[in-house]
Design goal:
2 copies of one chain form a homodimer.
Chain A (H helix, E strand, L loop, with lengths): L1 H41 L4 H15 L2 E10 L4 E5 L7 E5 L3 H9 L3 E3 L11 H6 L6 E7 L5 E10 L6 H44 L7 H15 L4 H13 L9 H4 L7 H19 L10 H6 L21 H16 L10 H10 L7 H7 L4 H8 L9 H7 L4 H9 L5 H14 L8
Antiparallel strand pairs in A: 1-2, 1-6, 2-3, 4-5, 5-6
Chain lengths: 440, 440
C-alpha cells in the first residue's frame, strides 16, 4: 500500500513538474524571442529601416502574413505607414478610419476573427492591393506620456485565429518597439531641423540679391544630379548636398557694396570677393559636423579650385581636390553662366557648352563633365526653371525625358533633323529662352 | 520488485525534472532581468541620463558595489566616464592606462579576484577617491563594426568574486547597452552639430560689424542668467538660448549700407532696420524645429515688442508677449546700452540703470527687471567683458561673487561706504570703464 501510494504521489509529482517545465520552457522561448527582437531593433536610428525591421520581426514572431506599423501624423491627422508593395512606398488615411483608427482613439486591443463581418473594418486598402484580410490583431503604441501615437496591425494568422498568448507577446513587443520608434523619430526630427535650417539660411542669403536668387538651390540640384549619374553612395550624396547648399555661405563676410556692385569690379574688389571661398571653409570648420559629414567644410571651400591648380583659395591641383569639390565647381559655373542676369536673356546654349568644353581638363575634371552631359532634358529644364515649376507643361517634360544634354547639343549642330528631334529642340529652347521680369 | 524499480525510476525522473526546472527558472530570471534593463534603457536618448541608468542597473544586477562605463574619446585618446562623486562630474585618463585601457586594447574580458595583486591595475583613482577596489570584472563594448568603443567596469562583488554566470549576464547587458549608448551618441552629435551651426552663424553675422561684435553671444548670456534667476525649467532655458542666439538673424535681410551707417538714420532707413524682427521670425518659422523648440521663432521675433504695446513688429501687449520674449527684450537693450561704441566709452552706469528703471512697466516686464538685478557682479563683469576673459583677474571675480547689481547701485548712491563696499565698487568700475582699442 505504502509503495503504491508512493508511486501515485511520485507520478503526480512528475506530472506537475513536467507541466511546470513545459510552462517555463514556453516562457523562456517567449523571453528569448523578445530579446532577439530587442537586439535587432536597438541599433537602428533610421526610421524607415526600423519600421521594416519591426514589421518583419512581428510577422515572424506571430506566424502572421503581414504586420503594419501605422504612425499618427498629428499635423494632418492621418495614419501613415511605410509599405513595400508595388510603386507606392507609403499608405495614408484619415486617423479615424478603420480598425486602426478605432484603436488609435480607444486605446483598446482589438482581436478580430473575421474582418469582413466587423463594421469597423475598412476594406478600401484590400481593394487597392488585391489582398484578402481574414483575421486582425490590432494594438495601440504608447509614448512615455502614455498617449497613443500609433498602432500595430497584424493580419491573417497562418493557422487559425490570434490567441491571448499572441496578444501578450505583441504587447511586449509593442513596448520595445515604441521606444525604438520614438528614438528614431527624435533623431529624424533633429536631422530635419538641422537640414531645414541650412536650407532656409542658404535661400535667405541668396535672396539678398535678386541676381543670384536661387543659386544655392540650383547648384545643389545640379550637383545631386551629377552625383546620381556618377552613382555616388548615399553618404557621399549627403555630403555633396550639404556642401552645395553651403558653398557660398562665406559671402556673409564680403561687404554687400562689393558683392552686389553692378559695374565691373576693380582688381582689389575682386580679391575681396574671392575671399568668400576661404571664409566658407572657416565658418563650416567651426561646426561640429558628425563623422559622416566631416568633409563638408573642405568640399564647400574648394568650389573655386581648378584642376590645373590655378583656382582659389588654395591652388589645389588634380587629386588634391575631392571629387565632390570637382562636382561643385562644375555645378557652380554652369549655373552662373546659364542664369538670367539683370534685364538680360540667358547666354547662348552653344556658348555655354563651348565654355564648359574649353575648360574641361583645365578647370573641370573630364569625368565629371562627361557624366553631367548625361543629364536628361526634363531634369535640366526643371533645374534651370527652378522656382517656376507651375509654368512648366508636364506633357513637355514627358517628351524631354528620353533625351540628354549630350544629344541636345548634337541635334542643335545637325542639319537634317527628324521631326522628333525638331520637336525636342523647340520645346527645350522655348523654356531656355523664355522672358521673365527679373525685377520682381 | 517491479514497484520498487518503478519508485527508483520515478524518483530519478523527479530529480532530473527538478534540476531542469531549477535551470529553467534561473534562465527565466536572467532573461527577465535583461528585458527589464532593456526597457529602462530603450527610451533614453540623453547620453548622461543613459550612462547613469546603465551603471545603476548593472550594479544591481551583478550585486556589485560600483559599475562604471568608460567611453573612448578618440580625439584625445582618453577614456572618460560620468561620475556622481564629489564635485567632479567626469573622470578621464589616457586610453592605455589600467585594466580598462588593457581591455580597450585587447578586447578581452578580464575578471580579477584581487586588484592590488594585478600589475595592470591603476590604483590612482582609488587614491583620489579614497575607495578600496578588491574585485574587478571588465568587459569591452563593441560597436556595429565590432570595434571596441568603451568598457564596462564592475567593482567589488558584494559576496565573493565575479562568477562565469556574472560574465555571461554582463556580456548580454553589454550588447544592449552598446546599442543604446551609440544611439544616444548619434543623437548628441546631431544636436551639437545643429547648435554649433547656430552659434557659428550668429557669431559670423555679428562680426560683419565690429560695433555689434559679440552682441548675440552676450544677449544669450544675459538671457540665460535671467532665466536661471527666474528658475525656468531646462526646456524653456533651451528655447531661450536658441532664440537669443538667433534673435538678430533677420538682419541678413537689411542692407548693410543702412545697417552699418555711422551717421543718424533717416526715418525711412529706420523703418527698414525695424523689419529685421519680422524677418527673424519668418526665417525661423521655416525651420522644422522639434516640439520642444517650437516657440523659438515667436520668441526671437518678439525681442522688440514692449509691454505697453508700442514695440514692433506686431505691437504685442503684456500677456501676448511670451516670457522668454520679455527676457530677450531686456537682455537686448541692456547689451545695446552697455556696449562700447566706436571710440566711445560705455554709457555711465547710473544712466544705464535710469533707462532700464524708467522703462520698467512700459517696455520691460517688472518681474524680469527685478530678477535681472539679482545678477551677481562676477557674472555681470564676465558677460560685459565677454571675449576678454584672459584679461580678468580671477581674484577680482572671487570678491565680486557675493554682490549683486542691485547692491552695486545702492553702494554707488551711498555716501558713507565701508571699506569692503569701496573695494567692490572700485573693482567693478575698473572693468566697466576700461579702455580698449575697438578698431581691431
Amino acid at each position: 500500500m505504502k509503495n503504491s501510494s508512493d508511486v501515485t504521489e511520485l507520478q503526480s509529482q512528475v506530472e506537475k513538474l513536467q507541466q511546470e517545465t513545459r510552462k517555463l520552457l514556453l516562457e523562456k522561448r517567449r523571453l528569448n524571442a523578445l530579446l532577439i527582437i530587442t537586439r535587432s531593433l536597438s541599433g537602428e536610428l533610421d526610421l524607415e529601416n526600423l519600421l521594416f525591421k519591426i514589421m518583419g520581426q512581428v510577422q515572424k514572431a506571430l506566424h502572421a502574413e503581414r504586420c503594419t506599423v501605422f504612425l499618427l501624423d498629428e499635423l494632418k491627422n492621418e495614419l501613415w505607414s511605410k509599405v513595400a508593395i508595388g510603386i507606392e512606398d507609403e499608405i495614408r488615411f484619415p486617423a479615424d478610419k478603420g480598425i486602426a483608427g478605432y484603436v488609435l482613439k480607444s486605446g483598446e486591443v482589438v482581436n478580430i476573427h473575421d474582418a469582413y463581418k466587423d463594421s469597423r473594418f475598412n476594406p478600401e486598402i484590400d481593394k487597392k492591393t488585391g489582398y484578402r484580410t481574414r483575421t486582425i490583431l490590432t494594438l495601440p503604441l504608447l509614448n512615455k506620456q502614455n498617449e497613443v501615437f500609433g498602432v500595430f496591425q497584424v493580419l491573417n494568422k497562418k493557422e487559425g485565429i490570434f490567441t491571448p498568448a499572441d496578444e501578450k507577446l505583441l504587447s511586449a513587443i509593442a513596448m520595445i518597439a515604441s521606444s525604438a520608434i520614438q528614438n528614431a523619430q527624435s533623431y529624424d526630427e533633429q536631422k530635419k531641423s538641422f537640414f531645414s535650417f541650412i536650407e532656409t539660411l542658404s535661400t535667405t542669403l541668396d535672396t539678398r540679391d535678386y541676381i543670384t536668387a536661387g543659386h544655392a538651390r540650383r547648384v545643389t540640384l545640379y550637383a545631386q544630379e551629377i552625383g546620381r549619374l556618377m552613382k555616388l553612395d548615399p553618404a557621399r550624396m549627403d555630403v555633396l548636398r550639404y556642401a552645395a547648399l553651403l558653398h557660398d555661405i562665406g559671402k556673409i563676410g564680403v561687404p554687400e557694396m562689393i558683392l552686389f556692385k553692378d559695374r565691373k569690379l576693380t582688381n582689389e574688389e575682386y580679391e575681396i570677393v574671392k575671399r568668400h571661398a576661404k571664409i566658407t571653409k572657416n565658418i563650416l570648420k567651426k561646426i561640429n559636423f558628425n563623422k559622416r559629414l566631416k568633409d563638408v567644410p573642405e568640399i564647400a571651400g574648394s568650389h573655386h579650385e581648378r584642376l590645373d591648380g590655378t583656382g582659389y583659395p588654395e591652388q589645389l591641383k588634380g587629386e588634391q581636390i575631392l571629387l565632390e569639390g570637382k562636382i561643385l565647381a562644375l555645378a557652380d559655373t554652369f549655373d552662373a553662366i546659364t542664369s538670367r542676369r539683370q534685364f538680360l536673356d540667358r547666354m547662348d546654349l552653344e556658348k555655354v557648352i563651348q565654355i564648359i568644353d574649353s575648360e574641361t581638363g583645365t578647370s573641370f575634371e573630364p569625368y565629371v563633365v562627361y557624366n553631367f552631359k548625361y543629364i536628361t532634358l526634363d531634369r535640366l529644364i526643371q533645374i534651370l526653371e527652378h522656382g517656376h515649376a507651375s509654368e512648366i507643361n508636364p506633357e513637355d517634360l514627358k517628351k524631354l525625358i528620353d533625351y540628354t544634354l549630350r544629344e541636345l547639343v548634337e541635334i542643335r549642330g545637325k542639319s537634317g533633323k527628324s521631326d522628333d528631334e525638331l520637336e525636342i529642340e523647340n520645346i527645350f529652347m522655348r523654356y531656355y529662352l523664355r522672358q521673365y521680369r527679373t525685377d520682381r
